[in-house]
Amino acid sequence: MAVPAAYPVEAIDNAARILLMLVDNPSLRVADVSAELGVARSTAHRMLTTLQARDLLRQDAQTKSYGPGPALARLGIAVIGAGALRDEARLLLEKLVDDTSETAHLLVLEGTETVFVEGVESRQVIRAGLRTGQRGPAHASAAGKALLAELSREELRRRYPGARLRGGTERAVSTRRALEAELEKVRETGYATNMEESEWDLCAVAATVRNRQGVACGALSVSGPARRAGAKLALLSAAVVAAATELGARLG
Fold it and tell me: What keywords were assigned to this record (predicted)?
């Protein structure tokens, strides 16, 4: 049972009430929030856009309503652990390896880094190795770019306040402007690539895992030696997009 705060802070209380409204209604309008909190529509709009700026909410471009943002998914993973996501992903990672003959991983985004949560190794003699638990610069990886593409421009610039980026090989994007252009391509194609950007002789393709509410929960990636993986990008991209879509549907 919730215990009333002895000295409630109104702004924090209102933000919490807005987020809790998502439990019963995954799509919020300004009028809904205004009525629920008993505030003017202009005030409700400022509250919603503030939460949107932190990626706790995301606005639908067509309906203008607000739903859960990618930061809520990351918060949920941090609170309950990645166990549920990892368990659901395992069978699909195994299928990805069967379909592509390359190593498959599940990754999440933390700040400007990707974290390898789970993986299944290829049975090829020469292959990409398992990296469970390891981290890397998001802008230099396929999964990282897939997940960064989910962020608003404001949130992306908050995470990358400087114009220059560090990490990865000489092939990795090295400026924020170049990264923003790369992320536009990811949004257009539905998948991201790593063409020897995180390390030499490694190529990867990744797609974002979104739950039924459209919230990004992680990314699936397949990777292998550059010459072999680079020659079958169409196969890898189709397989990883299909697997990410199926995993998202399983997450509810």
Answer: DNA-binding, Transcription, Transcription regulation
Q: How far apart are CA 209 and CA 190, in angstroms?
A: 11
62 in helix, strand or coil? Answer: coil
The C-alpha atoms of residue 22 and residue 9 are separated, in whole angstroms, by: 21
For 145-171, the pLDDT digits (tens) are 999 999 988 889 988 999 999 999 999
Backbone angles phi, psi at 240, to 5 degrees: -75, -35
Could you tell me if 112 and 137 are in contact, meaning their C-beta atoms sit under 8 angstroms apart?
A: yes
- Asked whether the CA dihedral 82, 84, 85, 86 is positive or negative, the reply is positive
Q: What is the pLDDT of residue 232?
A: 95
- The residues, any chain, with a CB within 8 Å of residue 155's CB and separated by 6 or more, are 53, 54, 55, 71
Q: Please, are residues 186 and 194 in contact by the beta-carbon 8 Å criterion?
A: no
What mean pLDDT comes out for the span 47-69? 84
Q: Give the pLDDT of residue 83.
A: 60
The span from the first CA to the last CA of the chain, in angstroms, equals 26
The tokens describing 199, both together, are: 């390390």
- Find out whether 200 and 216 touch, Cβ atoms under 8 Å: no
Q: Domains in the chain, please, with CATH?
A: 8-55 (1.10.10), 76-250 (3.30.450.40)
Give one word for 70, left, alpha or beta, with left for phi > 0 and alpha for psi -120 to 50: alpha
113-127 per-position pLDDT tens digit: 998 989 999 999 999
